Amino acid sequence: MDLHGKTALVTGGTDGIGLALARALRVKGAHVIICGRDPARLAAAHAEGLEAIDADLTTDAGRDKIVDVVRQWPIDILVNNAGMGTLYDVTKGIDLDRVDQCIALNLTTPIHLITRLMDGLRARSQAMIVNVTSGLAIAPSKGAPVYCATKAGLRSFTQALRAQLAGSNVHVMEVLPPVVETRMTAGQSHKKMPVEECARQIVAAMETDRHEANVGMTKLLSVVHNISPAIARRVMLRF
């Protein structure tokens, strides 16, 4: 896809991968709308020239707000990037409210936005849906079972959606990042990919209409999984 002149909605675009991706898309000549919940980060993004919308996508009201905004600015590209993690350890106690928020933001929201914005996307001459999952959608980590489940669910949904839209004007792409240097991963000791490089690889995949973009070390994980899913699972469950 030629990104110049396209209008893109990037959820979770005030921070991390979303903000880096919004900046990279704007450099390519796209008009970018982002959404988030933090007033200070929203203001900073707006000051950069991004259309910044205050919306909590874990709620129906937040999703309604984004759909209303898109009616004013018809989009060519929907990037479902917003996500959150949550601890889930049966030996240490579980916050089920946060679990519900994680499922809502990571899985329910992309499905709702895709469904409600589909007619508008299909009305464009060329459109794209980009779902950001994770390397953990391929094989889970012991420490984040709920997060892994949501990303695996979104991966499965993306693959089925792509089959449904085959031959249409709407291209469906999945992005599988590795551990990236963001606020969400600040407490992790694993080697992390610079967020700008992650965004660069995503944009390159969008420009070449890839179906699946395995970013950074996720490429190796994908190769191992194709050879032996059992080995990939054993490795990642220790992660």
Describe the structure.
By secondary structure, the chain is α/β, with parallel strands linked by helices. The chain has a single domain, classed as Rossmann fold (3-Layer(aba) Sandwich), CATH 3.40.50.720. The protein is about 45% helix and about 15% strand. It has eight helices and seven strands, in the order E-H-E-H-E-H-E-H-E-H-E-H-E-H-H. It has helices at about 15-25, 40-45, 60-70, 95-120, 145-165, 195-205, 220-225, 230-235; strands at about 5-10, 30-35, 50-55, 75-80, 125-130, 170-175, 210-215. A seven-stranded parallel β-sheet has the order 3-2-1-4-5-6-7, with helices on both faces. Strand 4, helix 4 (about 95-120) and strand 5 form a beta-alpha-beta unit. The longest helix is centred in the middle third of the chain and has 27 residues, at about 95-120. It is globular and about 50 Å long. It starts with 6 loop residues before the first strand and ends with a helix. The model has no long low-confidence stretch (mean pLDDT about 95).
Architecture in CATH?
Answer: 3-Layer(aba) Sandwich
* Order of SSEs: EHEHEHEHEHEHEHH
Show unreliable segments: none
Our Rg estimate from Cα atoms comes to 17 Å
Layout of secondary structure:
Blueprint: E1 7-11, H1 16-27, E2 31-36, H2 39-47, E3 51-54, H3 60-72, E4 77-80, H4 96-122, E5 127-132, H5 145-164, E6 170-176, H6 195-207, E7 212-214, H7 218-227, H8 229-237
Parallel strand pairs: 1-2, 1-4, 2-3, 4-5, 5-6, 6-7
